[in-house]
Amino acid sequence: MQSVGFIGLGIMGMPMVKNLLNAGFEVNIWNRTVEKSDQLSNQGANSCQSPGDVARNSEVIIICVTATSDVEAVLLGSESITDPIINGVEKSNIVIDMSTISPARTREFAIQLNSIGASMLDAPISGGEQGAIDGTLSIMVGGDTEILSKVNNIFEVLGSRITHCGPNGAGQTVKLCNQIAVCINNFAMAEALLFCEASGVDPETMLEAITAGAAGSWQLSNLGMKIVERDFSPGFKVGLQQKDLRLALEAADQLNVSLTGTSIVHQFFSSVERSLDSDVGTQALITSLEAMNNLEVGGKK
Ligand code: NAP
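Output (structure tokens, whole complex):
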């Protein structure tokens, strides 16, 4: 088994590393906030001093940080990261970026790594925190199939569906397609719940019925009851969803494609960020529609 490096121990990264350790991989970790690394050191991970140090000790290096600029910081360096991954990379190394970032910038990162003989895959994920815990993520891969075949054993620990989407950047493009579908699904769920509440029908009963029919979706199954129970804790934070919608809208702008539904949901999320916080879960989208209608799903207003 290869030695695996892992950078970014957030909501997603932390359980992914636990699964790799449980599967018997040697895992070298680095996180900006050191305390999070300490939790995993107790479970057998090797804590490294810097992203460069992770690269020097690992055959495969996985990144799972927030945004494009954060991947750039750990990969190529920044004011605060003086020993980035690229300092420790050798020809045989494979860098896998599992964050959701810009497809265009991904292609540039891949060219830069290829120029020193190393390889890169973009492999963003879907399935939420629970999917990361259960090792059932959907992994959308961009890059060479030959490189993918070398790390499939790692992906099989982390996910239950691994899809090769095309060359570098294609994984990120498919992830943005995922985010477009997810956000409009979320909006559809919110409108259905709002209408149900206004009609005086029990929202829990409605969810039970429609989850099993043609309207069934991940959003309905996983987030519907959270709304009824007024649980707006993340899973997936509104701030991250907004980052992804910005990436999709920017890419669509370059392609001269109009994403009308996505733009509208992006605006609704802006009002959630203003009225609540960017760190609430995406199910909080409902609060924006509730405010417009002076209604509260599962409650009284
Ligand atoms: P998160 O909980 O906010 O964690 C982000 C991680 O990135 C933390 O370890 C953070 O370090 C690190 N980080 C951020 N900026 C950094 C920088 N400039 N330098 C070094 N480290 C940095 O996020 P998450 O939910 O795990 O998401 C990670 C990625 O997966 C994102 O791209 C997200 O869009 C994507 N994703 C998330 C979900 C989900 O349901 N949460 C689902 C699918 C995909 P600190 O600990 O020091 O803050």
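DSSP finds 14 helices and nine strands in the chain.
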